[in-house]
Amino acid sequence: MLENSLHVNLLLIGIVTHLASYPQPLLRSFLLNTNMVFQPSVRSLYQVLASVKNKIEQFASIEKDFPQLLIQAQQYLLLRVDISDIPLESLTKDHAQLTNIIGKGRNLSEASQAILQPLLGNKAKRGVALPSIPSHVRNAILAAALFPEFLKELAALAQEHSILCCKVFGDFEDDY
Question: pLDDT digits over 145-155, tens only?
């Protein structure tokens, strides 16, 4: 997960989350049950996540500016969510302005920042863009920012799974 790009990690998280939310008890148990015993060569999702956590902690101990980079990565991801909430009409109206800004010799990130400035207000003024860091560091920082949110999602699914199991077993006992 630390070596993957942001988009690959988002796809991976989406796939695992969809599989865990699929209404198939065996699949849910396979992914969410931490007490299942597998063959020695088969790692559970819990073991994989523990391994990723250890890699993140190891990376955090090596990277000197990890806390500041993590905060910037979290703000960057939040800004991406805020941008996705902007109505499409307001972005297409400013397409001409975007091409005009790019035509003046600015790069695309500066141009998009100039377009989004009036739409996002103070959020865009904070300078949320990630600094120019090597791609492997950027990927690891973004993975570290995504990981707790992914764990929260899995915890919510596990809680839902446990409630559904209790409800199913309760209904089953009521029938007999």
Answer: 999 999 999 99
